[in-house]
Fold:
Amino acid sequence: MKKYFYTLATVAALLAAAPVSAQTANQTVTVVVSDINSISVSSGSVTLTVNSATAGSNPDDATDSSTSYSITTNGSAKKITAALGSAYATGISLAINLTAPSGGTSAGSTTLTTSAQEVVTGISNLAESGIGISYTASATPSATSNGAGEAQTVTLTITS
Structure:
């Protein structure tokens, strides 16, 4: 048993005295950041009802400011455009007013068409949410009653 103990002690002493060499390994890590332009709205639908008028005047406008948008971009000099998917029936129009995020400029109330129109400009490097959207629906006397309503898609796009 003594012999076993001495052998074990000798091996342990040799291992403790042996120099340990450190090893290293290197790796190159590339991080790619792509152009990020993301926009979303708080609700998928809004209903505006034009249902009153003063005698001798056009119907009263209907407004809604219950929705908002969120935006993230890592670019500079970006803008938001808005367009209708299809035109409303004769006598019906829809205007949008987007509050500008920090550093941006709102175009104010803009009557929408099927062509993209700038509604916010001067957007650079930001991430913000809860930014206001206001819609105004207008009708003239040539707009006929349309029952449950006429829905069109409004598309908001971030672009350069």
